[in-house]
Amino acid sequence: MYEFVPKEKTHKLSKVERVRRLLKSENAQSHIRSLMRALHPTEIAQVLEDTKPEIQEKILRQLPKEVISEALSEMDEETHPGTLLTRLRPEVAASLIKELAPDDAADLLSQIPEDYKEQLLSYMPDEEEEVINQLMEYEEDTAGGLMNPEMITVKADMPKLDALREVVRQSEGMEDFYTIYVVDEENRLVGYLTFKALFQARNSELVRNIMNTDVISVRVDDDQEEVAKIMAQYNLPTLPVVDHENRLLGRITFDDILDVIEEESTEDLLNFAGVSEDENLRGGWANSVKSRLPWLLINLGTASTAAFVLSQFEEVISSMAVLATFMPIIAGVAGNGATQTLAVTVRRISTDGIPSRKALGVIFKELAVGIINGLMLGAMVAIGAMYFNEDYRLGAVVGFAMCANLILAGLMGSMVPILLERVGVDPAVASSILITAFTDILGYLFLFSLATAVLF
Amino acid sequence: MYEFVPKEKTHKLSKVERVRRLLKSENAQSHIRSLMRALHPTEIAQVLEDTKPEIQEKILRQLPKEVISEALSEMDEETHPGTLLTRLRPEVAASLIKELAPDDAADLLSQIPEDYKEQLLSYMPDEEEEVINQLMEYEEDTAGGLMNPEMITVKADMPKLDALREVVRQSEGMEDFYTIYVVDEENRLVGYLTFKALFQARNSELVRNIMNTDVISVRVDDDQEEVAKIMAQYNLPTLPVVDHENRLLGRITFDDILDVIEEESTEDLLNFAGVSEDENLRGGWANSVKSRLPWLLINLGTASTAAFVLSQFEEVISSMAVLATFMPIIAGVAGNGATQTLAVTVRRISTDGIPSRKALGVIFKELAVGIINGLMLGAMVAIGAMYFNEDYRLGAVVGFAMCANLILAGLMGSMVPILLERVGVDPAVASSILITAFTDILGYLFLFSLATAVLF
To answer: Is residue B147 part of a domain?
Structure first.
């Protein structure tokens, strides 16, 4: 039995951590096998992700094939488990690939150079080679790219006892399975069989009479985000994948979907903060510069526009420099008000969606929030300005600018993502960079136009 | 068979949407039963979430109990499915509660007033009442709050045939199950039985000889975030929950965890944008004002500090107003640089974690990115300033301020969340509001101190 997963996260980390440290001493390296035996393949994957190539090779050489292959399939794609294979003898690498489920094999192989891949595939039986090659053809972020073609299927016109034997036969040498699919003579998906039905029905009963026909499936070219949504919404541990004629091609399991959801959440946060979703969280500086510089350049453009607006008021600023000191308050606070609204709206779109008939309601709500927050903060800023500058007209100007800018922040923060979604653009690109450009520019316009009108 | 989930999300929405619209016409209301029959309980939940009380009641009155109870358990907690119960006669409401899994029943009951809850519970058999009452005692965000006490268990010293009979007996009237747990005489968890073992072993074989002992479990008071991490990391469809003496109390299924992950991702994005995680995405304006105003007030404080810094340079601004036009560029672009770094660092902490020995590496990387982006953008800003103002010293000042501020942005964006995590504070509270306050203040200090030193 694996050690119980301890309560404190720190203990848990230190278990893998302990092994990592031990591996650094020459002495421990001769005991790799016993060290690793205490770890779950997922934990071995964590160790592999984070040790030097020489030690990785030593670990691989000492563990049973089925453990290594499971660990490889659990490694974070960003740590390039595929390149580990290229450092092994081809026969050894090929034997590891054979242990894997075809979808995991295809994922690993797609990471290594073409010629070495061909070489490894030449060790596989023709049939398996064909399956893996086919899987590599599907786009990575579609149902086809996620599915595993290994699954348990029975025919609708079999008697139950034959189906049970078929399930036992097919389950040999297979990982866990959660659903038994039922197909017709043309391999079209017509239902699924629950374990309960399989246990409880009479032996002679035909599968079609005991199967459940409420089967939900996805098409092979459906987007992975759509797949994740359906599995979450309908609470499905597995989801069958069919082609355009409803022929069963494979199944996606809940654990594939957990990875998709984590990936999408990372992308959402990065997009929101103005980082390209291609940024690898563990990548080097070059990857980060490449994924962030374009957004900073866009921001340089929007900020320069704000600077241009300000330059139109240079005379006002010269003759009343105190106005400039209010710029970070008027633009900054409203910028954050817009960011708040944007976050709530973008998240709502990406979880439940905002149907057309609700869009106006959402915008009105954000307008109301903007008005209330605007009135309160506007009043505070006005009182502060009057108090420190002993000028009630200045107080009125900055208070009004603050209030107006927060109201517009609420409108922009909700309207922009809703409109983008309507026209088919991912609302996540309305990152805070773009939305705060609006509040900067509008804030300066409010502040200095009002000041020009009232104070001069 | 339910209609196939269509490829386009818009079609899918319109199916529920079509029913919603039909429900508005008097004519269709007499056909609620047939309308609803075309929908999956999850879709009925979507309709219920979004219709007026009168129509909700009509729908409830016309559907079979097991469909209603499933739909109620699928409704978004934020739409208060519990209050729907309070509008039904107590016998009817109680009969719906009886249909539910105990964990879903406890969730629903915890939303309704104490006296009505007592009344409903009085209709239940004593045993069920006790189970539900016990479940309501666990904190909502712990393993105990998520678990379902209904599961299939067999004893380690049973022969396989008895175990199989036990599984068939226990699975009557139960929702899907995915794992058969094995306990000892004291109800302590000792392993699990795969279906494969159950199908393939000899009838007389003892369960303890065919069970799998690699069982991973969580404690009843473990945090839901920790539970989600373990299920995702070890790819588990169900996770057993035990007490401090390893006695089996219940199980958590992957679909509970999908909800937790969605909830946590929402919290992360909201925190990041300076919105309290209590904000209900579909809530009204009052809820939003309450969850956002405190952060705006904090922001008013940080922005006022920036304004105070600026007020120290009023003379410089008066005599050289062009400097003020560069404020949005120096402060804004670096603010976004800091936000980018913060998003990548916070997300990395919340997915893989950043162990101590890697912290310095992360900070150095962000420093490098800051230096490179700083040099590039600093040069651009300098050239722009020289070109438009025909003053090379001004160009040097703004270029240098831009570069220095972007470098500090990289340092702050990575160091602040890492340090917060070390001292046990959720790094998500280092929202962009706080981090951009730094870059505002530092940017103004760089710009105007340099200008004072060089240009006057």
So the answer is: no
CA distance A10 to chain B (A): 10
Whether A242 has a pLDDT exceeding 80, the answer reads yes
On the CB side of B54, CA atoms within 13 Å amount to 4
Q: Which residues of A touch B346 (CB under 8 A)?
A: 269
Domain boundary among B85, B113, B142: B142
Contact B269 A272 (CB under 8 A): yes
Side chain identity, residue B412: M
Torsion of CA B7, B9, B11, B16, to 10 degrees: 130
Assign A313 to helix, strand or coil.
coil
**What Cα–Cα distance (Å) separates residue B448 from each residue in A62, A367, B383?**
63, 37, 19
**B73: chain A residues, CB-CB within 8 Å:** none
pLDDT at A244: 93
Whether residue A194 and residue B176 make contact (CB cut-off 8 A), yes or no, is: yes
Is residue A274 situated within a structural domain? Answer: no
- Whether residues A266 and B347 touch (CB distance < 8 A) is answered with yes
**How far is residue B234's CA from residue B291's CA, in Å, rounded to a whole number?**
36
Q: Per the CB < 8 Å rule, is A213 touching B7?
A: no
Most confident of B16-20, B261-265, B427-431: B261-265
Is there a contact between B365 and A285 if contact means CB atoms under 8 Å apart? yes
B247-251, B315-319, B374-378 — which is least confidently predicted?
B315-319
Q: Is B292 on the interface with A (CB under 8 A)?
A: yes
DSSP bridge pairs for A159: A206
Q: A15 in contact with B at a CB cutoff of 8 Å?
A: no
Mean pLDDT within B183-194: 93
Q: Which residues form the domain of A193?
A: 152-253
What total number of domains does chain A contain? 3
pLDDT in tens, B364-388: 999 999 999 999 999 999 999 999 8
